[in-house]
Amino acid sequence: MSYNRDELLKLPPKEKLELVEALWDSIDDELLIGKLSTEQMQELDKRLSDLDENPESLIPWEDVKKEMNKR
Predict the structure, then answer these.
(1) Spatial distance between the Cα atoms of 2 and 56, rounded to a whole number of angstroms
(2) Overall pTM > 0.70
(3) Cross-referenced InterPro entries, in alphabetical order (predicted)?
(4) For residues 24 and 65, is the Cβ–Cβ distance under 8 A?
């Protein structure tokens, strides 16, 4: 597989989210069975649904890291 990580990181947040969703959707659920509980899978599905409904609520990882480092 060939991709340019630096170019992907330059994508606008909306496009990054679309890429993450596409990657997530490409993962076969069978890979997760037995590794995640039903509750964990439901929580992941809920969070993805929430992001679909409110993409502006996405907080960039860099912002999260900065906030965590302040503590």
Answers:
(1) 30
(2) no
(3) CHP02574_addiction_mod
(4) no
